[in-house]
Amino acid sequence: MSFLFQERSLRILFIVSVILMAVNLYAIFFIAPMVPEQHWAQKIFYVHVPIAWSSFLSFFIVMVSGILFFIKKDSYWDRVGLAAAEIGTLFVALVLITGPIWATPIWGKPWIWEPRLTTTLILFLIYIGYFMLRKFGGHPERVARYAAVLGILAFLDVPLIFYSVKFWAPQYQLHPQVEMNQQPDEILLPFFFSMFTFTILYILMLRFRVKISNFQYKLKTKNV
Amino acid sequence: MLNISNISKSFHYKPVLKDISFSLSPGETLALLGRNGAGKSTLLRIIAKISSPEEGQAVFNGNNLFEGVAAHRKGLYYCGHAPGLYPSLTASENLHYFSALHSCKTNPDSINSVLKDFDLIDAIDEPVKVFSQGMMQRLKLSFLELIDWSLLLIDEPFNGLDIPGQKFVMNKMESWQNGRRSIIFVDHDINRVLKISSRIMILDKHSIVLDDPISTSDLENKITSLMN
Amino acid sequence: MFITLLKKELFVELRNKEVILSMLAFGLTVLLIFSFSLSGNPKINHEIAPGLFWSLVVLSSSLGLHRLFGQEKDFDAFANLLSAPIDRGTLFLAKWISGFLFLFLIEILVVLPFFLFLGLSQPMSYFPGIGIVMLGNLGIVAVGVIVSGMAMRAKMSAVLLPVLLFPLITPLLIACVKATTGWYHLIPFSTWQFWVLIMATYVVIFGLAGYVFFEHITEE
């Protein structure tokens, strides 16, 4: 484990993440005001949205890694793509869990087919397929190419998924349409701080995961 | 004609080929030898652009083979381990379609004469899936009489053939050798290889351990010691 | 070369009929399941007919797509296709168009039983419906050929293919059902033209993606 902290920049990033997250949690629980009608449930907003943003950022990185893998022909980009896919899928699962937790007291039921949740669910299913492809696709050298293509296709699909789901069943537009420019500063500031904190956390997780991946790769290719 | 440089290929992180480099001139018949798992079939499949290497370049007639341009493969013909045929089509239908894919026009007469030559005329209307291994092997090789090729990559051409069949193929391979055509073939029989090839290459432990023309003195002993 | 490849695809399939028969048999079976598992009320069936039709198409297509590379895989004819001086993008196009034609043939064969078993009324006009079906087919098969090309060399390919295919074609499925509903239920075109646009966008994006990426999917 200690090898993860050998790099100075990673050590600093880790400490910064911990501090930021501590401040963020304090801000969410004690500084951000209680919204009438929604009370504690509304506070999930400060976690749910940043995690959702980070997961989309992650899938964007999967696509970019795929493109770079084909251009540079370097397996490093395959490892970055895998790391981003793993973290992205984890975050998507968290979105799908925190969403219903928020929804139950607010909408009265945990799940409805509104566009953003549905898009997230479809992305989750695409990435289940991605990991099945990684497991059953054959030798790693070939799977790297397959995964890169799938990562690019999945991200190309995202706008199509979003717009088709959005107009599929307009009666399900119950997703809290948070009008950002109408929110008071006491909500906006903690929200943007939380977005920033989760992005830093995401970068830290990605760097850790890539470092582990690189190390495993070196071990596997070393004694030959 | 063919320039291979620094080709490396791994499967499951284990290298099969490491930094393989060699050149092939027109008219050469190169025999590729080596133990099972040495990477001979892999090397042929890489040159034929069926498999992609982690690193390396292949230049054929001045064109980069790995660039993904189909025209760069013109004149190259690959004959693998497996039949490489459509099981539900007949021999003549397979010949017709694969020749067309190499931009070679065929007519029923040319196909029939080739099938007669390779002793397949009796099975002309049978789907390939009912062929014996020997028949499929002969059908694979019969393409070479129809297609205009300059580099042949052939993996174990004598596989599954009886003694007359092997002699037939050896004669065919000798007849194909002219100044402009080159052949790289994989084989295991040292005596046969010494008879029909002009150059011997042995792959072992991911590298080329021998690459000598047939005229080299004491070649047979060198080969035997390396293969054992 | 595209015409030669396409002719070969059609000829091989005509000879062994693997793709067509598997799609037809499965399609009719699914239709039977729909017929028995639904209430049988023609009014309800009329409402949900577009959804049922596209569910049937998507389910059958996954079986057919699985066998699309079957003949090339069995005796490794694929190696000869790859080493031949054929552009890989053209190979994708040939598989795409032949797959589209096979799926369209199955739909023609299944549509009459579909209307009969579910007690559906005849549509007012046929051409818009045929156009929608053809556009939907192009989209499904474009992604299907890419995914089938990857699954061809994989383990558990029969399971892997639908798991990869279905989530990717969800927007297309939604758009196909919406457009078909608009046509079948005689809703003005301006209301559902957006869905046709989504379908067309999908076909263009994934058709192009297949053409470009087929090179990388096919090698070992």
Tell me the helix content of chain C. over 70%
CATH topology of the largest domain in chain B: Rossmann fold
Enumerate how many helices of chain B there are, as a single number: 7
The largest contact between protein chains, plus residue counts on each side, is: A-C, 30 and 34 residues
Strand content of chain C: under 5%
CATH architecture identity of the largest domain in chain B:
3-Layer(aba) Sandwich
β-strand amount of chain B:
25-35%
The structural class of chain B is alpha/beta
First-residue to last-residue Cα separation of chain B: 32 Å
Q: Describe the sheet with the most strands of chain C.
A: none
> What is the average of the pLDDT values of chain B?
89
Oligomeric category: heterotrimer
Order of helices and strands of chain C: HHHHHHHHHH
Number-wise, the strands of chain C total 0
Question: Overview of this structure, please?
Answer:
The complex is a heterotrimer of chains A (224), B (228) and C (220). Chain A has helices spanning 8-31, 45-72, 75-107, 115-136, 140-166, 185-222. The radius of gyration of chain A is 19 Å and the shape is globular. Chain A has one domain (8-31, 39-213). By secondary structure, chain A is an all-alpha fold. In chain A, helix 3 runs antiparallel to helix 4 (115-136) and helix 3 (75-107) packs antiparallel against helix 6 (185-222). The two termini of chain A are 25 Å apart. Chain B has 228 residues and is α/β, with parallel strands linked by helices. Chain B folds into 2 domains: 2-75 and 150-227, P-loop containing nucleotide triphosphate hydrolases (Rossmann fold, 3-Layer(aba) Sandwich), CATH 3.40.50; 90-148. The radius of gyration of chain B is 18 Å and the shape is globular. Chain B starts with a strand and ends with a helix. In chain B, helix 2 crosses helix 3 (108-117). Chain B has a 6-stranded mixed sheet, sandwiched between helices. Chain B has a 4-stranded antiparallel sheet with strand order 2-1-4-5, with helices on one face. Helix content of chain B is 30%, strand content 27%. Chain B has helices at residues 40-47, 91-101, 108-117, 133-142, 163-176, 190-196, 219-227, and strands at 2-11, 14-24, 29-34, 55-60, 63-64, 76-79, 151-155, 182-186, 199-204, 207-213. With 220 residues, chain C is mainly alpha-helical. Chain C has one domain (2-218). In chain C, 84% of the residues lie in helices and 0% in strands. Chain C contains 10 helices and no strands. Chain C has helices at residues 2-16, 18-37, 42-66, 70-74, 77-83, 88-117, 127-151, 157-168, 170-184, 189-218. In chain C, helix 1 (2-16) crosses helix 6, helix 3 runs antiparallel to helix 9 (170-184) and helix 6 (88-117) crosses helix 10. The longest helix of chain C is centred in the middle third of the chain and has 30 residues, at 88-117. Chain C is globular. Chain C starts with a helix and ends with a helix. Chain A binds chain C through residues 70, 122-123, 125-126, 128-129, 132-133, 136-138, 142, 145-146, 148-150, 152-154, 156-157, 160-161, 163-165, 167-168, and chain C through 143, 146, 150, 153-157, 159-160, 163-164, 166-168, 170-172, 174-175, 178, 194-195, 198, 201-202, 205-206, 209, 213, 216-217, 219-220.
